[in-house]
Structure formats: C-alpha cells, structure tokens
Design a protein that fits this description.
Layout lengths: L1 H8 L15 E9 L14 E11 L5 E4 L11 E4 L4 H35 L2
Antiparallel strand pairs: 1-2, 3-4
Helix pairs in contact: 1-2
C-alpha cells in the first residue's frame, strides 16, 4: 500500500532525481516453499508456505506524452513526458491490497476465536 500511495503522489511528477519523469514502482513477491525453508511437513502437494515482498522494481512501460507547449518541461515539439502511472490502475491495486489485508485479518480473528473456544471446552 505504501508503494501504491507513492505512485499516486508522483502521478504528475515530470522531473525526478534522474531528470526523467517518475517511473511507476511495483512490488515483486517471491513464494517461499516449505522444502526450501528446511521445514518437514506431511501436507499434500501444496508446498507453498509464505509469500514475501522481495524487491521493488520499476515499471518498464513508456511515459505518457501530452502536448503542452507552455510547460517548462516541454521538448522542442511542445510534448511533455508524464509518469507511466495510471490513477485508476493504482486505485484498483489499492483496493485489492486492502481487501487482501482484511481477509487475512479475518482468518486470524477466526483462528483466535476457535483457539479460545477450544481452551474453554477444557474448563
């Protein structure tokens, strides 16, 4: 969610530190398998144990070009390069990340409730 908010905040940044427009950032996730982590398990075929954010990469899509001859960053043809950030795409990603977080929190709450009920059964 932090990377998405950074993309939204820089959606109109025509000059970044390198002199080019801001490039959209993406989070790269790696799936870590139980076997690689050295854990022994009796679970069937699904070896997926966890997913980790491993690095942040730049989106390679081209910049948006808009004709604005009066803009200070316009080239000789009056074209201004804007970041390759699309607000509607970022908002969809933000909603998806938020819903995934809510779903995970719901699973944790349900697990806690079941554990507490199991403990109360023994009383």
């Amino acid at each position: 969610m932090e990377v998405i908010s950074q993309n939204i905040a820089n959606a109109n940044t025509t000059k970044a530190e390198d002199g080019e427009p801001y490039r959209r950032q993406l989070v790269h996730f790696d799936a870590i398998l139980r076997k690689q982590m050295g854990q022994k398990t009796d679970l069937p075929s699904n070896n997926l144990s966890e997913v980790r954010a491993s690095k942040i990469i730049e989106d390679s899509r081209p910049f948006r070009e808009v004709y604005q001859p009066g803009h200070p960053d316009a080239d000789g043809n009056g074209m201004v390069k804007y970041p390759n950030v699309h607000i509607h795409e970022e908002m969809a990603d933000l909603i998806s990340a938020s819903r995934a977080y809510e779903a995970n929190m719901s699973v944790i709450r349900t697990s806690r409730t079941l554990a507490m009920q199991t403990i109360n059964m023994g009383k």
